[in-house]
User: Fold this.
Amino acid sequence: MAQAADVEAQAKEFAETFGKVRAEIGKFIVGQAPIVEQTLVALFAGGHVLLEGLPGLGKTSLVKTLSAALDLQFSRIQFTPDLMPADIAGTTVLREGEDGRRTFEFQRGPVFSNVVLTDEINRATPKTQSALLEAMQEGSVTMGGTTHALPQPFFVLATQNPIELEGTYPLPEAQLDRFLLKLLVPRSNMDDLVKILNRTTGEAGQSLQKVVAKDRLLQMRELVRKVPVAQPVTEYAARLTLATHADHELATPLVKSYVRFGSSPRGAQALLLCGKVLALANGRYHVAVEDLRAVARPALRHRMILNFDGEASGASTDKVLDEMLAKIAP
Assistant:
């Protein structure tokens, strides 16, 4: 009985902290509540986020506000075609000491930070994009045969513009798969735009408060991993993932017609991890099917590749996912 009470207290404390962070960010980011929540879900799940949206929608402001509210070190990398891997990871330089002796020393790049904003990631060459791959997957950088661990927590938020395709290098599927969630940032409505104008064209407003310390964030991540998942919920995550493959018996009509390649097992992992965070954020110490359905679109939309018919018809992976969620029962 005491153990059950302790578990309930942990879930309640997690929900309170999650709510405080979300509210603090909401003081400065207007009209993007779902994006803020889903970004926090990925952060507490230990994954990375790809933000896609038009310029000026607050993607950079969201990342900077997030790092400040969590008291995390922030760095920004502007991706351009001439950016080199060493500009991200760092390089080895030759230094001369006071005694005249020369030694090689590793000079860390901007990726050595807690929150890394990679702006317009699709503007860099594949060689430079791949330099970020090890950091995202392994949490380390290898240079000159030596592996350097990145600071923890390590969280990458990449942005890309969906309309400017000239001079860009689309992210390969292997790189996309490393992002836990892909979030589509919508434009502001009339009321939100008026609030933004009032806040940004007048006198300086209130300052941001630091809500969660780094150590506390790492503890919350550990708690997420401990949340139990019932077998039927795990099986539902597996069914949703398998249903993204056109040749599987669970595939819906749109999947069979429009999808060339479906999700990897990382899609199912994303569903469960994000479902655990959502459960704790709502004060529960168990994952419900509704938690998985709530994160299905951001977790799977970038892990599905449309075929020629899908592209030609103007269909989106979200449309395919909507049909899947309607037809595939828990």
